[in-house]
Amino acid sequence: MQDHRSVRPWRMIDRRLSRKIRVGSVEVGGDAPISVQSMTNTLTSDANATIGQIRELEEAGADIVRVSCPDEDSTAAFKTIARAAKVPLVADIHFHYKRGIEAAKAGAACLRINPGNIGSKSRVAEVVQAARDYGCSMRIGVNAGSLEPYLLEKYGEPCPEAMVESALFHADILRDLDFHEFKISVKASDPFLTVAAYQQLAEAIDCPLHLGVTEAGPTRSGTVKSSIGLGSMLWAGIGDTIRVSLAADPVEEIKVGFDILKSLGLRHRGVNIIACPSCARQGFNVIETVGRLEERLAHISTPLSLSIIGCVVNGPGEALMTDVGFTGGGAGKGTGMVYLAGKVDHKLGGQDMVEHIAELVEARAAVIEAERAAEPTPVSALATETALAHVVAA
Ligand code: SF4
User: Fold this and answer.
1) Which pTM value belongs to this model?
2) At residue 379, does pLDDT exceed 70?
3) Average pLDDT over residues 52-73
4) What residue's CA is closest to ligand 1, atom 5?
5) Neighbours of 382 (CB within 10 A)
6) Could you write out the three-class secondary structure of 302-368?
7) Shortest-distance atom of ligand 1 to CA 315
8) Domain 15-263, what architecture?
9) Share of the chain above pLDDT 90, in %
10) The dihedral of CA 116, 68, 25, 234: what is its sign?
11) How many CA atoms lie within 13 A of 337 on its CB side?
């Protein structure tokens, strides 16, 4: 079904045009789709556990996964992990330049490292050389909680200006070495500070930006905080790759990341369920039905829309704009109307409602996939998604 964003200019987002870099097979910046990342929280030295978690993240749709490399055991295991991973990996390095070199050799697609924190110029040059030799990009990651002491002294407290100055300080070190394959993040746990820092950084440099509100908190409040922070930046066209930081299963971070992008029409992955909150008019149990459908349809990655609406007050209108729609027929009746591609199709009631709707969605997904397969040269899953997403790149 045609996405009505394409004909409604007030739904369009003009993305800041950043320089494009690569994180392994994934393009970041420019007109590339906004990628979604998370980070493993297993011990990296436990390769099997880490590979297991990367698999879960891949299945949830992660485009890129970050893995901490705090010690030599971790970079040793990184080789096995990188070989097993289907998505590109970012090795998270803090102060040990040797870990950066080891991770580059071990197959990291990107190093998260702040060049100003790893010591002498020659050490930085060695890491940059390793990145060049092994095709790694880099991420400069500025965090309000770990700003350089001289900046805290200069500005008195973490503020957007201090964070941007820190980011540009690290960026200049790489640029002086003629290394330009980097992206930057300027994260804080306070969304005001985060957004202001990214806004200033977006004006100051043309590299891709990795967005995140750091340490956002547990699932519910962290999701809200991230949605406000990341959502307002993405809406303003800022951001090329995102990570939602939750004190929760990393898979949740991927789900929330996609939901933020889906809400803004920037990426379309999986079933976008539109559901009413339900009230006394509901013709069936909306909340239970939606919960069961969400679980039942989690395996679908094809972008499509499903409306589950309790009654005819809003149901037919929503169904007009979705691939599959179901609208309750009246209080307590337990039956309703199924809509396909916006048109009334058939009545439905009874125990198998969830399964029946799920099968309709699966059938619609199969049709979309068949159409997609018939299209000329689908370059990659990400590129196909770009074609499906109505994103306006400036
Ligand atoms: S669509 Fe109907 S059931 Fe759902 S909240 Fe609105 S009035 Fe209530």
Assistant:
1) 0.88
2) no
3) 96
4) 278
5) 16
6) CCEEEEEECCCCCHHHHHCCCCEEEEECCCCCCEEEEEECCEEEEEEECCCHHHHHHHHHHHHHHHH
7) 1
8) Alpha-Beta Barrel (3.20)
9) 79
10) negative
11) 19
Structure tokens at 156: 């008195």
List the domain boundaries for the chain: 15-263, 271-393
Among 163, 101, 154, CA closest to 130? 101
Give the three-state DSSP class for 226: helix
DSSP 107: T
How far does residue 314's CA lie from ligand 1's centre (Å)?
A: 7
Ligand 1: which of 313, 318, 326 to mutate, most ligand atoms within 8 Å of CB? 313
271-393: CATH, from 1.25.40.10, 3.30.413.10, 3.30.70.3040, 3.40.1080.10: 3.30.413.10
Contacts of 132 (CB under 8 A, 6+ apart): 179
Q: Which atom of ligand 1 is nearest to the CA of 312?
A: 2
Geometric angle at alpha carbon 39, from 160 and 253, rounded to 5°: 80
Cβ 281 under 6 angstroms from ligand 1: yes
Taking the CA of residue 281 as reference, the ligand 1 atom at the shortest distance is: 3
